């Protein structure tokens, strides 16, 4: 399961559940969302054409939502979220710094 950090809210998200694979398609994505990796809560509700996407602004509930410090994580070579400064994976970071994360 490849993970990414939402560029808008900082949530940990699966590439199959959020706005990841369409983010660079000008045919599908409105200008204001181009290039952005977005979780299911932040993903656009409409494609470029105006047709509705499957996203409605809510979390998908396939796993618990973990909100990490925005912009502090990247997807490493094996698809895990890694903290840029400490090298900790997102779960390790959440265990070590529970005051810096939020579960919803």
How does the major sheet shape up?
2 strands, antiparallel
Q: Which structural class best describes the helix and strand composition?
A: mainly beta
Number of strands: 6
The percent range for helix content is: under 10%
- Which series of helices and strands comes N to C? EEEEEHE
Oligomer: single chain
Rg is: 14 Å
Low-pLDDT residue spans: none
Secondary-structure blueprint of this entry?
Blueprint (H helix, E strand, L loop, with lengths): L2 E3 L6 E3 L51 E2 L5 E3 L5 E3 L6 H7 L5 E2 L1
Antiparallel strand pairs: 1-2, 3-6, 4-5
Identify the notable features of this structure and list them briefly.
single chain; mainly beta; two-stranded antiparallel sheet
Task: Explain how this protein is built.
This protein has about 100 residues and is mainly beta. Helix content is about 5%, strand content about 15%. The protein has one helix spanning about 90-95, and strands at about 5, 10-15, 65, 75, 80-85, 100-104. A two-stranded antiparallel sheet has the order 1-2. A two-stranded antiparallel sheet has the order 3-6. The model has no long low-confidence stretch (mean pLDDT about 95).
């Amino acid at each position: 399961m490849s993970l990414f950090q939402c560029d808008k809210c900082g949530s940990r998200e699966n590439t199959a559940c959020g706005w990841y694979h369409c983010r660079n398609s000008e045919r599908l994505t409105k200008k204001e969302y181009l290039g952005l990796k977005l979780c299911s809560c932040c993903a656009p509700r409409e494609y470029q054409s105006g047709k509705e996407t499957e996203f409605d602004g809510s979390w998908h509930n396939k796993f618990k939502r973990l909100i990490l410090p925005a912009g502090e994580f990247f997807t490493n070579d094996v698809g895990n979220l890694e903290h840029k400064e400490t090298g900790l994976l997102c779960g390790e970071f959440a265990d070590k710094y529970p005051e810096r994360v939020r579960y919803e």
